[in-house]
Amino acid sequence: MATQDFLVELGTEELPPKALKPLSDAFTQGIIKGLEEAGIEFGKVDAFAAPRRLAVRIRDLADAQPDKPVEKRGPAVKAAFDDAGNPTRALTGFATSLGVTPDQLDTLETDKGAWVVYRTVEQGKPTVELMPELVEQSLAALPIPKRMRWGAHRTEFVRPVHWAIMLFGNTVIDTPIIGLTPGNKTRGHRFHCPKSLIVPTPNDYEVVLRQEGYVVADFAERREIIRQGVTELAEAEAKGKAVIDEDLLDEVTALNEWPVPLMGRFEDRFLDVPAEALISSMKEHQKYFHVVSADGDMMPLFITVANIESKDPSQVISGNEKVIRPRLSDAAFFYETDRKSRLEDRIDQLKPIVFQEKLGSLYDKSVRVAALASKIASAIGSEPELANRAGMLAKTDLCTEMVLEFTDLQGIMGQYYATNDGEPADVAKALNEQYMPRFAGDELPTTLTGCAVAIADRIDSLVGLFGINQPPSGTRDPFALRRASLGVLRIIIERELPLDLQTLCEWAAEEHSAITEANVANTVVDYMLERFRAHYDEQGIGAEVYLAVHARRPTRPLDFDRRVKAVEAFRQLPEALALAAANKRVSNILTKQGGDQIGEAVNDSLLQDAEEKTLAEQVEQQAAKVLPLFEQGDYASALSSLAGLREPVDNFFDAVMVMADDEAIRNNRLALLNRLRNLFLRVADISLLPTAS
């Protein structure tokens, strides 16, 4: 089958920069999905995305769908012909519905009888006929929250669309898409090349745009041009290092078609302002990259990326310097103003700020968090007074001018202001560390005071919101309780804190007065333990391992984690499958015979067969060895030791009849199995592990 390259481009007004890459990816994947569903063969796929265009090129696209054999079954042969062998009404009706005569039909023999069938070959449709619809379907499925109309058009898109290209080889597919008739003309840079450019073939697309249009159409290529240009400029002009935030880099890439990095300067006096405030101002408002020295200190420099190759770059630089100066002046003013008032004097300002209608104000939350943090600090060997103080001051920086202007600085500015107020170092640091981890993989609090406040803040929200029956539902989680749960688990596990979730939630419930739900501590603990599933899934640990541990409901996260790691290691042992199967068998037997009513006291005088005597002896030896390991939390060593029971367990089941006629012997054997199973249950329910490889 013949192939050609295909190109589709939509030319628009400037697309939303943060949405450009997701739109491009979705557009590309939508076309790929359409081609696969249509059965059209194709080769490499190239996506292009720039501020004023979305484009996709498909290499080696087949010129038609492949022909497809079609078989349609009609009536049974017995019903298709009468006794004289003439077609019945059933047969003629089937043939007429297909537009054929009865003599054009075949017979299909099956083990259930013979049937009349119609066989033909459905010819594939030409690609040029299918592509417009596939493109339209992909555009309709784009993740656009709110579409817009323009002019007198009824067409809707994220931004007005001004031109379209649709080429198959050098042939224009002129079937209208998105209200426009496609051609082979694109447009260059808005200022450097404000005219139409002919794209002869799909292969020429990015070459024409770069060489004639001053447009780098490939998003990834443009991104690396910016990264390299910014990095080299910082090194060459300032012997410094440009700090490149990946999200900012994506946004700047989406803002520029012909990127030109330029370095500007601001007054040294602004370096007295916390670096985070300067960075936030430059990054959020101006999309600038900041520069640091070899020692990591902030330099009075910034790098902007212009979307134009100016004949006089100094004018562009000067303009950016004029723009950033008032921004930094505002930050400096806010910083100076905020430091005139102590954080403790702002505590009362939290009273009018509602945290949640039923749970009170931020002041009420601060009082609860301070009390809870104090208890947590005692439990982890920290200083309760510092945790209490940090809890009361934790939200006060929300009332400062700096945080009101730059909301992403909450906590960060709290640490600066607390230090300025002369608060203890751990208290000041805790005001920032309360928000850690802010996202998956983020750093954790380094101080015990910070850990106490971070945990208390999250547990207070979880218990309070569950207590008034407002848990997360589906995709709705306005208070980020899922993230809060994972944050608590990470802090406790990675900082190896001896904390129990049940105790934490009960402490938190005692501080709340608005709780209406019964057993809220149990509910929250169950919810948090369920978060472990995703936590271990990200680490490549199977759900069956999590479920085996979860069945025992250990409520200390550090203990839970050690059990999971131990079971995961046990699962890799050659004895694991057999012991899991044995545990499952034992569990089923014990459940049928009374479950919890069965004790584990074994009477040696009632042991008869050599295999059960050996097993009883081995179980006792293992118990003496592993029980101290359980007390130490060394579950991995304990399970590794218990793996040695595989052979005596297998021999027992091969040779011994558990359900003996003699009731005393039967009960003694059940007790032996119960003792065996309870050893494993000290870690997890091993019977829930897979029993076949």
Automatic annotation (TrEMBL):
* GO BP term (any one): arginyl-tRNA aminoacylation
Query: InterPro entries of this UniProt entry?
Result: DALR_anticod-bd, Gly-tRNA-synth_bsu, Gly-tRNA-synth_heterodimer
According to the entry, every stretch annotated as the DALR anticodon binding domain falls at 581-679
Keywords (alphabetical) are:
Aminoacyl-tRNA synthetase, ATP-binding, Cytoplasm, Ligase, Nucleotide-binding, Protein biosynthesis
EC category name: ligase
- The catalytic activity of this protein is classed by the Enzyme Commission as 6.1.1.14
Gene Ontology MF terms in the entry: arginine-tRNA ligase activity; ATP binding; glycine-tRNA ligase activity
Per the record, its GO cellular-component terms are: cytosol
Q: Which reaction does it catalyse?
A: tRNA(Gly) + glycine + ATP = glycyl-tRNA(Gly) + AMP + diphosphate
Subcellular location(s): the record lists: Cytoplasm
Q: What is its main location?
A: cytoplasm
Which superkingdom is the protein from? Answer: Bacteria
Q: Family, per the entry?
A: Belongs to the class-II aminoacyl-tRNA synthetase family.
Relate the assembly described in the record. Tetramer of two alpha and two beta subunits.
What is the protein named? Glycine--tRNA ligase beta subunit
- Native species: Marinobacter nitratireducens
What are the leading ranks of the lineage? Bacteria, Pseudomonadati, Pseudomonadota, Gammaproteobacteria, Pseudomonadales
